[in-house]
Specification:
The chain is α+β, with helices and mostly antiparallel strands. It has a domain at 7-106: Jelly Rolls (Sandwich). The protein contains six helices and eight strands; from the N terminus they run αββββββββααααα. Strands 1-8-3-6 form a four-stranded antiparallel β-sheet. Strands 2-7-4-5 form a four-stranded antiparallel β-sheet. A hairpin with a 5-residue loop joins strand 4 (47-52) and strand 5 (58-64). Helix 2 (97-106) crosses helix 3, helix 3 (108-133) runs antiparallel to helix 4 and helix 5 (157-164) crosses helix 6 (168-179). It starts with 6 loop residues before the first helix and ends with a helix. 25% of the residues are buried.
């Protein structure tokens, strides 16, 4: 996705961290319905925020990498509204929610940087919504490529399919069609 948060803001968050945690690929960081007590900053690797439909399909709400915050809305929510699953081995910094909120209340510069981050998140979410509203795989892929540039390496195609809301097979067919 679009670069969501500046490295300087991520650096500001790291000192608020109480600990770091390693996760293996496919491990859950949290589940939908879990009580929120910490905010998480991805230090290494990748984590997806996912929502699962009744038919078992999954929608990627966020594809978070280094210096991305997971589930920002959790700062003001008692429970998580999605699942966070590592898509690769990763390290996350854990920031106690109350410590974060105290800093937000007491430091106007920090609050302004947070507001800027949230504004950038809204822009990214609107783009994601726009992509998902498109009817064809080709149109969704074109829109994604307009903002992100090149198709990611082959090992990332399943994640790309998740991001644009299509099956991996449909994406593979579209990519094959474009190569000919």
């Amino acid at each position: 996705m679009i670069v969501i948060m500046s490295a300087s803001f991520a650096a500001t968050l790291r000192p608020l961290s109480s600990r770091s945690r390693r996760l293996a690929a496919d491990a859950h960081l949290f589940h939908r319905g879990d009580q929120v007590s910490h905010l998480f900053l991805v230090v290494e690797g990748r984590i997806d925020l996912l929502r699962f439909a009744e038919d078992g399909s999954r929608l990627v709400l966020q594809h978070a990498g280094p210096d991305d915050i997971l589930a920002e809305a959790s700062v003001f929510s008692p429970h998580y509204h999605c699942d966070a699953i590592a898509t690769a081995p990763c390290v996350v910094a854990s920031i106690p929610r109350q410590r974060f909120r105290d800093r937000l209340r007491g430091d106007p510069n920090f609050a302004e940087a947070w507001a800027q981050h949230l504004a950038q998140e809204i822009q990214a979410l609107r783009l994601h919504s726009e992509i998902l509203s498109l009817r064809t795989v080709a149109a969704r892929l074109d829109a994604w490529l307009t903002w992100h540039g090149d198709v990611p390496p082959r090992g990332e195609w399943k994640h790309l399919a998740d991001q644009i809301g299509v099956s991996p097979e449909a994406l593979y067919r579209e990519l094959a069609r474009r190569r000919t």
